[in-house]
Write a structure and sequence with these properties.
307 residues; alpha/beta; 6-stranded parallel sheet; 3-stranded parallel sheet; 11 strands; 15% strand
Length: 307
């Protein structure tokens, strides 16, 4: 089994010219239904990316978010993919999607979250790479932490059973969320800053707070966050660092497939995930630890958070 905490499937369909349907095994495509099934994928956090690049400047647009949600429901209806809304849905047979909003910039009011919840949203990123009314991003010039409204948003999300995601969040913002949160949170796609210094990677202080609260971080396949010339072996170094410092229970996988233009050598598509599994075993991970990384840790968190 395999759980992926981040794929940009909707973004792929919204930004590609005449892409093949998702049930086609498209050559050169990082992820689609045939590849996911070959990979043994059980669950994918299906990201809704609500930003448009207006000639060099990124702007949030709620219309893109609506279209992204529509894409996931269309795939579910046409191809038999289950949309996860409750913990019981985790055990439905076959591939499942958990819909996640990548950045809360298009959530205009805490009360809006209930409407998103009714549309099937079960994951919420506090920020993307822009500061917003809720908090500050990892690229912020002045990360002042979670705002008062942001604290209300996190509380509302957790009461509804929506997974809070700190990928892209700034250091102070992430630490504030981890102090506020009553349930475990995820960092859906990032690596360890202690191995590779990169703004998108996570510091030991945040990782310690995440581990103390039962959260998980999804090791990501974004090349620049892994190493200069990344391979599965290099990604396994991040896994070993996390295991040795914080315990294997903190580690999951969040590839960012279909949201990245290049991939690590040997991990060009999701059906090559076994190359990462082999790298973990070569790095000394026991079979039960590999299972924890690949799906058990994610499922444990979801059982605690989902309604």
């Amino acid at each position: 089994m395999f759980v992926d905490l981040h794929q940009d499937i909707a973004f792929h369909f919204l930004t590609s010219l005449s892409p093949p349907p998702f049930d086609a095994d498209a050559g050169g495509r990082q992820s689609d239904l045939p590849k996911l099934r070959r990979a043994g994928a059980e669950l994918v956090f299906a990201a809704v990316f609500p930003f448009v690049n207006a000639y060099g400047a990124w702007n949030p647009d709620a219309r893109l978010a609506w279209e992204g949600v529509k894409i996931y429901h269309a795939i579910a209806e046409r191809h038999g993919v289950k949309i996860v809304e409750t913990r019981g849905d985790l055990y439905a047979p076959g591939l499942k999607f958990l819909i996640l909003l990548e950045g809360a910039d298009v959530v205009h009011d805490v009360g809006d979250l209930r409407l998103w919840h009714r549309l099937g949203l079960r994951g919420l990123g506090v920020t993307w790479n822009l500061d917003n009314r809720w908090g500050h991003s990892c690229y912020s010039k002045n990360d002042r932490g979670l705002t008062e409204a942001g604290a209300e948003l996190v509380d509302a999300a957790q009461r509804l059973g929506i997974v809070v995601d700190l990928a892209h969040a700034g250091e102070a913002t992430a630490l504030d969320v981890l102090r506020e949160a009553r349930k475990p949170v995820v960092i859906s796609h990032a690596n360890a800053r202690g191995v590779t210094p990169h703004p998108r990677n996570v510091s030991d202080e945040v990782l310690k707070a995440l581990a103390d609260r039962g959260g998980v971080v999804g090791l990501t396949f974004i090349p620049s966050t892994i190493s200069q010339s990344p391979t599965p072996r290099d990604l396994a170094k991040h896994a070993s660092y996390l295991r040795d410092k914080f315990g294997v229970e903190i580690i999951a996988v969040g590839t960012d497939y279909l949201g990245i233009s290049t991939t690590p050598q040997g991990l060009e598509s999701v059906d090559k995930i076994d190359n990462f599994v082999k790298a973990l075993k070569d790095a000394g991970f026991r079979d039960e630890e590999v299972e924890a990384v690949m799906w058990r840790n994610a499922y444990r968190l979801l059982r605690e958070v989902l309604p």
